[in-house]
UniProtKB/TrEMBL annotation:
Domain ABC transporter: 38-288
CDD domains xref list: ABC_Mj1267_LivG_branched (cd03219)
Highest taxon above the source species: Bacteria
Name this protein carries in UniProt: ABC transporter ATP-binding protein
A GO-annotated cellular component: plasma membrane
Keywords, comma-separated and alphabetical: ATP-binding, Nucleotide-binding, Transport
Species of origin: Nocardioides luti
Pfam families: ABC_tran, BCA_ABC_TP_C
Keyword Lipid metabolism part of the UniProt annotation: no
Classification via Gene3D superfamilies: P-loop containing nucleotide triphosphate hydrolases
Molecular function in Gene Ontology: ATP binding; ATP hydrolysis activity
Keyword Nucleus: no
InterPro entries xref list: AAA+_ATPase, ABC_AA/LPS_Transport, ABC_transporter-like_ATP-bd, ABC_transporter-like_CS, BCA_ABC_TP_C, P-loop_NTPase
Length: 322
């Protein structure tokens, strides 16, 4: 770890320092941050006539955990795909621009994005499930470049670096308590262990920012705490974390900042507590599905609860008539 990262780690391991850092940030969508590592402008993506993503401006603060939340279909995964070079914005020629740690990324490939230090986790696909845990880790060192990831499996390109890379892989496996599974097929791991492997693999390329898409999905409660601990310790060491998550209890528990998308747009930003009581956020979730647990029912006012009850009754009546 570099000296600057470890110095930063001291600041970011201190909850009060993090809180102070974010306390002056405007609680408005697109707010400027004290030290933005990722800056996104004018990024849109249409599928046919449907706009999946339409983000005017978003900044992600360095060294903290930011959650990107929003109801199903809000555009979160599409947004991840766009900024990591796995999809092209519709606005590519009309002003879409994003930069990471000062480097422009909008004209670069997925592998260049990863090389710049912005790495996302990948779900364990069928092909990766049929490989051993250690082989999955060795692939992580390849900067996870989409299809290249698969091509590279068959290339004997490690040479004399191989031992070094293997040692690093084993160190990470030990950190994530997967070393015993080193030679097992990745497909034999439990849901939670897969998530740990996805995270460990992403760390093989020493990213500055790690992007996690639903890190808690399919994880049993016993491993949830361990996964949360790993995410927090990455942040405490100075890494920036951006994650998409549906479980609002998890979001409340570990996020320093929350950005909310609805219907492709960024509709709110702020610390978890203030965001989850924001009317635009409650409306966005309730408009999408009534049974969403925002993590704290007390945030729903009586008036809002009555409104929901009326909407649910009206929908039930409509279904009966149909
Ligand atoms: N390749 C595609 N072709 C057509 N429509 C797409 C495609 N990818 C995404 N969409 C649509 O774009 C919208 C945004 O989808 P996206 O998966 O990004 O949302 P999300 O917020 O990640 O949702 P979830 O939380 O359910 O994963 C949805 O209406 C989805 O159906």
């Amino acid at each position: 770890m570099s000296e600057s990262t470890s110095t930063q780690g001291v600041v970011h391991a201190d909850p009060a320092a993090r809180k102070a850092l974010m306390s002056d940030v405007d609680r408005t969508p697109g707010a400027a941050k004290p030290d933005s590592i990722l800056v996104v402008d004018n990024i849109t993506r249409q599928f046919g006539g449907m706009t999946a993503v339409d983000v005017d401006h978003l900044e992600v603060q360095r060294g903290v955990i930011t959650a990107l939340i929003g109801p199903n279909g809000a555009g979160k995964t599409t947004f991840f795909n766009l900024i990591t070079g796995f999809d092209r914005p519709t606005s590519a020629k009309t002003g879409a621009a994003w930069s990471f740690d000062g480097a422009k990324l909008d004209k670069t490939s997925a592998s260049s994005v990863a090389k710049a230090g912005m790495v996302r986790t990948f779900q364990l696909t069928k092909a990766l499930s049929r490989m051993t845990v250690i082989d999955n880790m060795m692939l992580g060192a390849q900067n996870q470049a989409g299809e290249n990831l698969f091509k590279s499996v068959f290339k004997p390109l490690w040479g004399r670096q191989e031992k070094e890379i293997e040692a690093k892989a084993e160190e990470l496996l030990a950190r994530f308590k997967l070393l015993e599974k080193r030679d097992d097929y990745a497909g034999s791991l439990s849901g939670g262990q897969r998530k740990l492997l996805e995270m460990a693999r992403a760390l093989m390329s020493d990213p500055k920012m790690i992007m996690l898409d639903e890190p808690m999905a399919g994880v049993n409660p016993a491993l949830t705490q361990s996964l949360l601990g790993h995410i927090q310790s990455l942040r405490d060491e100075g890494m920036t974390v951006l994650f998409v998550e549906h479980d609002m209890h998890v979001v409340r528990h570990i996020s320093d900042w929350v950005a909310v998308m609805a219907e492709g747009r960024l509709v709110a930003e702020g610390p978890a507590d203030s965001v989850m009581s924001d009317a635009a956020v409650i409306d966005a979730y309730l408009g999408a599905h009534h049974d969403t647990d925002l993590g704290d029912d007390a945030l729903l006012s009586d008036e809002k609860m009555e409104e929901i009850a009326e909407e649910v009754a009206a929908e039930a009546a409509e279904r009966e008539e149909a």
